[in-house]
Amino acid sequence: MKYRKEVLIIGISTLVLSSLGISLILKKDQDIEKTGFITFWFDDGMQTTFDIAYPLLRRNDWPAVVAMIGDRSSAIEKYEGVDGVMSWEEASILQDKDGWEISNHSLTHSHLNEITDQGILEKEISKPLEIFKAKDLDVQSFTFPYGEQGRLPGQEIVKKGHPYWRSSIPGVNSVPAWKHLTAYFFNNDTTEEELEAWIMEAEEGGWLILGLHSTLRKPVTEWEHTPKQLRKLIKRIRESKLEVVIPSYMYDTYGYAEDNVPPQ
Ligand SMILES: [Zn+2]
């Protein structure tokens, strides 16, 4: 009995010590004064975003954004040979369990700038909102596919159904930000110098949105990053003066900058 008791005490002490160690490490990161903001924004709803990126971010209690293509069969077809796509159930877990934001990434991920038929354009932008609603996903933003802006008719439809949206115009957002959010993309060819420049700019009181795609051990195109690159990025952000946020937090806290429209 005595032996068991000692083992138990040693076990508990080890547990207490190791949890103290963990909280000391966390405390160290939390002690860094935060002077800017960052959002991780994953496009296309890829399976590896759920399987690899999500657990890595979760360890830091960081939510993110995932832009889902409304018609999942189009998504499966588009990314065949690159990555799988996450299920609606997995998107719900991200939203309900860890506070991720789900973004509308159009119905079929088509080139909105090339669609001249108003009805088709409307369907591409607005139809997914019905799909998200049926799945109990609360969608606020629109994420333009291919970095296009949908020209003026597309912009008008997006504005009607979404309080804010993101294109691929490069840039750090101001705080408060305008409804049209800009982003930099973190790919396998992003250099350390580029990342440092973005972080430094955001640390001056800005809001950096990092667009990301699949997390693949062997990237197929320049758009994906490796798990190693993502882990390194997370470590760098932990040590930075940037607070990890989601857009709804930024708008709820700081409102909109009505006069701060990015260049079209
Ligand atoms: Zn996309």
Q: Could you explain how this protein is built, in words?
A:
- The chain is an alpha/beta fold and 264 residues long.
- It has two domains: 1-31; 34-254, Glycoside hydrolase/deacetylase (TIM Barrel, Alpha-Beta Barrel).
- The protein has nine helices and nine strands.
- Strands 1, 2, 3, 4, 5, 6, 7, 8 and 9 form a nine-stranded parallel β-sheet that branches.
- The radius of gyration is 20 Å and the shape is globular.
- 36% of the residues are buried.
- The model is unreliable at 12-17 (pLDDT under 50).
- The protein binds zinc ion.
- Zinc ion binds at residues 43-44, 105, 109, 145.
In summary, what is this structure?
The protein has helices at 2-30, 47-58, 72-78, 88-98, 118-134, 151-161, 192-203, 227-238, 247-254; strands at residues 36-43, 65-68, 101-104, 139-143, 164-166, 180-181, 184-185, 207-212, 242-244. With 264 residues, it is of the alpha/beta class.
**Form type:** globular
Specify the biggest β-sheet: 9 strands, parallel
What would you report as the Rg, rounded to the nearest angstrom? Answer: 20 Å
Bound compounds, please? zinc ion
Number of domains: 2
Mean pLDDT: 89
List the secondary-structure elements in sequence, H or E.
Answer: HEHEHHEHEHEEEHEHEH
CATH class annotation of the largest domain: Alpha Beta
Features:
binds zinc ion; TIM Barrel; 264 residues; 9 strands; alpha/beta
SSE order and pairing:
Elements: H1 2-30, E1 36-43, H2 47-58, E2 65-68, H3 72-78, H4 88-98, E3 101-104, H5 118-134, E4 139-143, H6 151-161, E5 164-166, E6 180-181, E7 184-185, H7 192-203, E8 207-212, H8 227-238, E9 242-244, H9 247-254
Parallel strand pairs: 1-2, 1-8, 1-9, 2-3, 3-4, 4-5, 5-6, 7-8
The structure holds zinc ion.
The site of zinc ion has 5 residues, from loops.
